[in-house]
Amino acid sequence: MNTSEYESNPILDKLPRHLRQYIKPQNYEDYTPINQAVWRYVMRKNVDYLSKVAHKSYLEGLRKTGISIDHIPNMYGMNRILKDLGWAAVAVDGFIPPAAFMEFQAYNVLVIASDIRQLENIAYTPAPDIIHEGAGHAPIIANPEYAAYLRRFGEIGCKAISSAKDFELYEAVRHLSIIKEAKGTPLDEIEQAEKHIAFLQDNMGEPSEMALIRNLHWWTVEYGLIGSLEDPKIYGAGLLSSIGESQWCMTDNVKKLPYSIEAAKTSFDITKKQPQLFVTPDFAFLSQVLEDFANTMALRKGGLTGLQKLINSKELGTIELSTGLQVSGNFKSLLAHDGKPIYFQTEGKSALAYREKELVGQDINRHETGFGSPIGRLKGINIPIEDMSPRDLKAYKIYEGEVISLDFIGGINVTGKIVTGTRNLKGRIILITFENCRVTHNGLTLFESDEELYNMAIGEEIVSAYHGPADLYSFDLLDLSLSSGNYNNSNDTYSELESYYKLIRDFREGNNTIISRTKVFEVIQEKYPKDWLLPIEIYELAVLSNEKTLAKNIKLHLETIKLDQPNLGQLIDDGLELATVKSLA
To answer: What is the per-residue pLDDT across 169-210, written as a single tens digit (0 to 9) for each?
Structure first.
C-alpha cells in the first residue's frame, strides 16, 4: 500500500508490507452528522455510566489518548498522542484475519475499523467500528501493564496455528458484520447469516490453537472484567463500547467466573449477549495465564503434534529444528517412528532460514516445488549429526566429496555425494548439500535426482511449529482477495434529515446560532416521526436554555415513539436523563 494514503510515523514505518495492505485512509470527511451524533450519544452515555463501573484506567486513558466525547476521533490526532505511549493506530476495513490483527498488536499498533455503526444498531453491533475500537481499546492501553499484555498477546497469538474451519468462520462473521450494517439488508438475509455462523460454531470439531487463543482474547481484551468477583470493573473493549452489554454484564444475569486458562475452552457467540464473563484479579495475571497457554502451543512444544497441526491447517507455517534451522512452507505430509517425526515434506514454495533470516540460496526460487528432509538420529551412532565436531564428521565420512549412505532411525536412507555443509553461528552443522542423491523410506523412493542438488536439514527434533514464515520477506504475503467491507454511504450530498442534524450540531458548537430549534423539531416531528436521536439533541439544548415548552413537546413526542417502538425506550430514557443531568451540572 502507498504510505501516502495514510500518515505514517516511526512506529508504523516498522510494519512489514503484508500488514500495511490492510491499512486504509480514514477519510474523515465521510462521517455524516448522524454518524457524529451516534458517536456523541454513545460516548456521553458510556462516560456517564462507565465512570462508575469501568476500571480507573478507562477515564484516565480517555484523557491521555485525547479521545473526545463530542467528535469522532481523527486518526492522525490520535497518533500524535498515542506515540507518547509507544503506540500507534491505523484505520482498517472492518474485520481482518485474526493472525493479522494480533500481529499488528505485536508491533504496538492498534487496529481501528474506521466505519461507524448505524443509528439502528447504536446499542450494539457485531461489526468492528470506531466506537468499539477507538472508545473501547484505545483508552485502556494507557495502562502500561495492560499495554504490555496486549503486545505480548499479539506476539504469541499471531503464531497460533489455525484450521480450515477457522477461516470459514472468520469469513462468515465478516459477512454478517457487513450486511448487518449495510442499509436495506433484508432481515431474513441477516437471520440466515446468523444461522450459518451458529451452524459453523456447532461443527468446528477439535478447536485449533487459533480458536483457543481467540477465546482468551475474547474473554480478556474484548469482554474482560477485573477486580473481585463481588465487585468487578470493566476493561474489555466490547463492554466499554456497548451501551447495552456494559449495563447487562453488571447484573446477576451474567455469571462471574475467576479468570484462568480454562477460559480458552469457553467458546463465545458474537451474535448474542454473553451468559458468563471472566474476572482477572489484576492486569499482571492476564500475562501469567497467557504464558501458561503459550506453553501448550506447538510454538513451544514442537514435535510430531506440532508438525501435524501445520499439515492440518493447510496454511503457510514454519518448523524449527533443534539446530535452529527453520523451514517455512505449506506442510503436506510426514513420516513417524515411535511417536517422533522422521521425515517431513512441504509442497509449493518453501524457504529455509536461521534466526528468522532467510539462508542465502535457500529461497522460494530454490525450493519452488517443496522441501523434504529426514530428521532424527543415525542408526548405531550415539552422537547426533548436529553435535558432531568437524573431526567427528570427517571420521564418519560426512565430508566434502565423500559418497555416503546415511541410515536414520525409522528407516530413512540418504545416499549421495556430499557437496558442502552449512553451519550456524555456533559452528553446528545445520544443512548438508548432496548431488546424485536418493532418499528412501524402507526402500520406497521419496526423492531422487542426478543433476539437482539436494539439501538435507540437520536436526534431531522439531522444537517449534507455528503459523507464518520464519522470515517475513521470504514470501509474498499480500492477500489479493481483499475486498471492501465498507458499509457507510458517502456524504457527498446530505439527505434532508442529515442537514437538520448538521444544523443542530452547528448550533451547539457555536457555528450557527440563529436557527430556530423549535422549527427544526417541528419539521422532524412531521417528516421524520420515527427519528429519536435528533429530538434528544434538541431536547438537551432546550433544557440548557430553559425552553420549557419546547422541552415538554419533545418529551411528549418521544413518549409516542416509545409506544410505537418499545425497543427504543431505554435509549430514549437514557438520553433524556443525560440531558437533564448536564443541565443540573
So the answer is: 878 887 887 787 677 788 888 889 888 888 887 777 788 999
Write down the pLDDT at residue 489.
Answer: 46
What average pLDDT does this structure show over 397-421?
96
160 residue type, one letter: A
CA angle (70, 76, 79) in 5-degree steps: 100
Assigned fold of 12-163+204-214:
Phenylalanine Hydroxylase (1.10.800)
Q: Any binding-site annotation on 557?
A: no
pLDDT of 481: 54
Q: Does the annotation list 441 as a binding residue?
A: no
> Rounded CA gap, 39 and 69, in Å?
8
Q: Left (φ > 0), alpha (ψ -120 to 50) or beta: where does 444 sit? A: beta
Closest CA to 370 of 343, 395, 346: 346
Return the C-alpha cell found at 141.
492501553
- Inter-residue contact 466 to 300 (CB < 8 Å): no
Indicate the pTM of the whole model.
Answer: 0.86
Q: Where are the domains of the chain?
A: 12-163+204-214, 317-467, 496-580
Cα–Cα distance measured from residue 340 to residue 351, given in angstroms and rounded to the nearest whole number:
23
Q: What is the 3-state secondary structure (H, E, C) of 228-252?
A: CCCCEEECCHHHHCCHHHHHHCCCC
pLDDT digits (tens, 9 = 90+) for 24-42: 888 899 999 999 999 999 8
CA-CA-CA-CA torsion sign (426, 429, 430, 435): positive
**What's the CA gap between 443 and 446, in Å, rounded?**
9
